[in-house]
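Supplementary Methods, section 5.1.

A reviewer requested that the exact input to the structure prediction be made available. We therefore reproduce it here, unchanged from the version used in the analyses.
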Amino acid sequence: MLNDTVAVYKPIGITSHQVAIRLAEKLGTVVTHTGSLDPMAEGVLVLLIGPEAKKRQTELQAVDKEYEFDLLFGFSTDSFDPLGLVTEAAPYEPETFPEGTLSGLIAQLVGKIKQQVPPFSSIVVRGKPLFWWTREGRLDEVGLPVREIEVFKTALLRPCQIAKTDLEEMILKNIGLVEGDFRQDRIKEGWRSALAKHPNARFSVATIRTTVSSGSYVRSIANEIGRAIKIPALALRILRTRNGRYGLSDCTRLSDLL
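The structure derived from this sequence is encoded token-by-token as follows.
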């Protein structure tokens, strides 16, 4: 498997970096990847294996990627996904779901846009990952970096609703899968508290498919959509369906490698 390229299906809970480290330890060689997936994201992760891995990384990173994500209306967090402290909770009634407005809005995203990096991300700023500055309460010293990205395609696949009990079960279960210190206990308590205020509510969710350039953050796209229509929103679920030429059907199960 030396000097090889392998696509794996990364499950929820583990970071891309953790996947690379564990496989490197097993194989006794260098392993890197061509684009991170957040702990709460799943799907296609392309690994580069062998002594030449880092030399090939830059070239293979610069490919477009396709995602399907569920946009949850009514909540925002400091991470732009469920693995964050709830910063705003204003449940949005499904009876007035702005399907036409949303379709038009996501169509307008196509093209080159300036995207603000999420506060909890691994991009390095002044020698430290951005999440370090955020957790230390020093984000104001560096600010949120802005990148130019390109959105090639967008499509609203389906709107739906989810009951409070189902939403809470899903969020707490997925947070429980996350390895490492991501403030899980505080975050779960925050979600329980926020959802307890709306025991009988049903929440609006929209599934969106998008193809974007390398370096794009789906969490930021979800957050910006919410801001544009003045409704709190976050990326409830993120599935990477394609990374360059590698799709879901090309993936090996992570358990088969580890």
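The radius of gyration is 18 Å. These observations are discussed further in the main text.
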